[in-house]
């Protein structure tokens, strides 16, 4: 009798090189090829995403009969392309949500957008779709970005010659996204949640690693080696190795756990992505910090690095950002008075140095 050790609906096969591969196949649902090996945390996350329909969605009746050249046809191809599959699971969930809501929407003619032909899309159509979403400017801009990506893919597929979204403009959005924690807010949270509590450990992991909540909730002793934490970011695939700073070390040691991860819920189990965000929201509210969030601590960590005079390269090595523009968004809340004082000191030091050189140069004196 064949030994069954793989989860339900998961089977093993060999690729053309003879290497074992694993796939999810469940009747009525799209198949999915695993990227991670069974027994790993990454495999567990992929399997959970298959079960909830994130990466192996239910197959709609007649979906395979999408009209050639329609958006239904284009989207089906897009979901099988590297454009969609290469980003992390969290990003794919967001992308799919935006695309599915849009293609199932029915304008005044009663037909879904998914039934429309790709070649018929014009800039005025995109602008009308965005206008219909007001006052939700951020959501409208997100739709524009997904349509732009779809049309770029359509050009490569031969379903379009130009990208009509390029002729449109996004809405201006006031604000800078998630609120960056101030030092007073950090102190207020620490005063409410003492060392040794799960609330404080989650806070310290976020602040003293500068990582996203989705990565923090799965950190455990297995990520620690040689007084460093090494992790691969779920969203970007970037691997970072970070020294464990003294405040974080004290917090970890003060919060003993028999689990394989640091942060667990009341049942001793890992938080789900949504569950962790909701629980951290409660912890912030208990400290009277209604504007603060888990992601705001990532921005606070970047702000602290900027205020300490760290370069963009040093900050990127810590946060895992890949471009200077991303770092600029996260460090925009750096203390302006402190930075301007430092800039003024550097300017005056340089002027004094230049003046000293000029007055000690006999040629300059003669001139």
From TrEMBL:
Keyword field contains Transcription regulation: no
Pfam families reported for this sequence: Phage_integrase (PF00589)
Superkingdom as given in the UniProt entry: Bacteria
InterPro entries, per the entry: DNA_brk_join_enz, Integrase-like_cat_sf, Integrase_catalytic, Integrase_recombinase_N, Phage_Integrase
UniProt entry keywords in alphabetical sequence: DNA integration, DNA recombination, DNA-binding
UniProt xrefs under Gene3D superfamilies: 1.10.150.130, Intergrase catalytic core (1.10.443.10)
Tyr recombinase domain mapped to chain residues: 176-343
Family, similarity comment: Belongs to the 'phage' integrase family.
Record's protein name: Tyrosine-type recombinase/integrase
Organism: Sphingobium olei
Lineage, uppermost ranks: Bacteria, Pseudomonadati, Pseudomonadota, Alphaproteobacteria, Sphingomonadales
């Amino acid at each position: 009798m064949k030994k069954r050790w793989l989860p339900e609906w998961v089977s093993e096969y060999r690729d053309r090189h003879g290497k074992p591969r694993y796939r999810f196949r469940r009747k009525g649902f799209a198949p999915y090829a695993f990227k991670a090996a069974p027994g790993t945390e990454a495999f567990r996350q992929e399997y959970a995403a298959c079960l909830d329909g994130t990466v192996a969605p239910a197959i709609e009746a007649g979906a395979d009969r999408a009209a050639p050249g329609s958006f239904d046809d284009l989207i089906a191809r897009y979901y099988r392309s590297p454009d969609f599959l290469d980003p992390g699971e969290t990003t794919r969930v967001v992308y799919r949500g935006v695309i599915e809501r849009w293609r199932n929407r029915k304008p005044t003619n009663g037909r879904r957008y998914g039934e429309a032909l790709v070649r018929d899309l014009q800039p005025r159509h995109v602008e009308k779709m965005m206008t219909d979403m007001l006052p939700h400017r951020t959501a409208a801009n997100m739709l524009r970005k997904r349509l732009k990506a779809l049309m770029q893919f359509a050009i490569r597929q031969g379903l379009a010659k130009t990208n009509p979204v390029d002729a449109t403009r996004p809405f201006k959005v006031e604000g800078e996204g998630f609120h960056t924690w101030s030092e007073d807010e950090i102190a207020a949270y620490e005063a409410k949640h003492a060392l040794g509590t799960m609330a404080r450990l989650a806070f310290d992991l976020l602040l003293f690693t500068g990582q996203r909540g989705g990565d923090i909730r799965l950190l455990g002793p297995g990520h620690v080696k040689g007084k460093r934490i090494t992790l691969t970011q779920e969203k970007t695939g970037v691997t970072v190795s970070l020294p464990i700073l003294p405040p974080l070390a004290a917090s970890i040691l003060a919060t003993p756990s028999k689990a394989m991860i640091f942060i667990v819920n009341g049942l001793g189990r890992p938080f789900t992505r949504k569950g962790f965000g909701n629980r951290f929201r409660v912890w912030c509210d208990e400290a009277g910090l209604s504007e603060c969030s888990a992601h705001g601590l990532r921005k606070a960590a970047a702000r602290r690095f900027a205020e300490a005079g760290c370069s963009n390269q040093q900050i990127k090595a810590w946060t895992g950002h890949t471009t200077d523009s991303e770092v600029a968004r996260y460090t925009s809340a750096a203390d302006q008075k402190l930075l301007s004082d430092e800039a003024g000191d550097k300017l005056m030091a340089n002027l004094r140095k230049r003046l000293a050189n000029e007055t000690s140069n006999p040629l300059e004196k003669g001139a």
